[in-house]
Request: fold
Amino acid sequence: MTRTRLATAAVSAAVAGALAVSASPASASASNGYVSGGGSFYDDFADEGTLSTSSHKDSNATCLWQIILYAEGVKESNGTQFDYADIDGKFGSNTAYATKQLQKAWGLTQDGKVGKKTFGSADDKWNASTRAGELEYRSTGSTSATKYKIRYHGSRYYFDVYRTSSGMYRFLHQDAWRLASYSNNSGCN
Reply:
């Protein structure tokens, strides 16, 4: 009788563990290697990994963040607007400075790092007068690479990104589609 209870308990624990793993949300952090999401896209960025001068500093994920900085029209270290030429996928002092400017505008701690709060504010920050700082659903695509078309509204301009059927974000930069990878910079510069 005791062996049967132990065996049942062991099987139950294994099944519960398997269900817990399979029930985890599709949205994940840098651990899966990509900016990604699942379910509603309004909170896709809130669980992403940190981008900074010491973390994922040379990556397509940084390139995507720099496009957000450009779309928001924040100032860079020389006092001019963060411009298209500044988008190189390298998180250096200029990107850190521009990030601090955006954090200030959004009422966040100004540390120059793109953590969960800062990245998360990019998908849920809403300014009713400028329609800035939000992700907006545009359409559903017909291929796995273009499953959901989503528009980011910045205060300066907007741009479109795609979330694939597996949840990874893709963006267009310099006439090429790139996955927002944390470990690869596929020529953003």
